[in-house]
Specification:
Layout: H1 4-13, H2 21-38, H3 45-54, H4 58-66, H5 70-89, H6 92-100, H7 109-127, H8 130-152, H9 154-161, H10 168-181, H11 184-214, H12 231-240
Helix pairs in contact: 2-8, 3-5, 8-9, 8-10, 10-11, 11-12
Bound molecules: zinc ion (2 copies).
């Protein structure tokens, strides 16, 4: 039995019409995680320790900065910066030793080794993020639950069989999870349905975006728009995932 915290939202999202069910779920979990990081998490020592250690990515700092609670944000930044400086201090000794080295006395590689390892540390720093970690973990659970319910809940199977596919990013994410979630026999049944839904989605989209281009020809000015009016944004969001606009206050 899969946990209801994952099955309920997945079931709900398949009851409504949306461009990509996983984009909707991702947006929700991301919003909740930002609120949690600046709210309840402030009282959770385990979360604080990990947050101090990992910090956040550019995108999630931006989302946190949009929130009115600047004290929570400043507390998070203050303690994370301590950790960053502590880690940077570890390179102090070897960096200072370069100053006293006579040129040519040591192999060039020792200076390069230092810059390479500082690069590795700073690269990790810009990629580590508490919210990305939480969102990625939860999205994998949702994808797992989609496939689990497909084979255990006939009602859900019916919904999925008639669903409108995913954005390409989430289509990719589902494909990645198939070997982890399904037996070979189940995968044989699931992949053709997944593929068929995706192809159908792109076929419809192509019709709409092409119609959008035709509307710019004056000879077609009386042709009804149909579903073509918002085709550019829908095409972008299908090809590259949802465009994140600043949250409304
Ligand atoms: Zn998506
Ligand atoms: Zn992030």
């Amino acid at each position: 039995m899969k946990e209801q915290i994952y099955t309920i939202p997945v079931n709900e999202i398949y009851d409504k019409k949306c461009a990509c069910p996983l984009c909707e779920l991702e947006e929700r979990i991301e919003r909740e995680s930002v609120e949690y990081a600046l709210g309840a998490a402030m009282m959770e020592p385990d979360f604080r320790v990990e947050s101090n250690e990992l910090g956040y990515c550019n995108r999630h700092y931006a989302k946190m900065f949009e929130k009115p609670n600047k004290l929570s944000l400043a507390l998070v930044l203050d303690t994370h910066l301590i950790e960053v400086r502590k880690k940077l201090d570890k390179y102090k000794k070897s960096v200072n030793s370069l100053k006293s080295q006579k040129p040519g006395l040591f192999k060039k590689s020792s200076a390069y080794d230092i810059s390479n390892s500082i690069y590795d540390f700073t690269d990790k720093l810009s990629h580590d993020c508490m919210i990305c970690k939480k969102v990625n973990f939860t999205m994998e659970r949702y994808i797992d639950v989609i496939m689990y319910m497909y084979f255990t809940k006939p009602e859900f199977k019916k919904k999925f069989d008639n669903s409108d596919g995913f954005c390409m990013e989430h289509f990719k994410a589902v494909c990645k999870m198939i070997p982890k979630c399904l037996s070979d026999k189940q995968a044989q049944e699931f992949i053709p349905v997944l593929f068929d839904r995706q192809v159908k989605k792109l076929d419809i989209l192509q019709g709409d975006i092409h119609k959008f281009t035709l509307k710019f020809d004056y000879r077609n000015k009386d042709m009804p728009w149909g579903n073509a009016q918002d085709a550019p944004i829908r095409t972008i969001e299908t090809l590259a995932g949802k465009i994140h606009k600043p949250e409304e206050k």
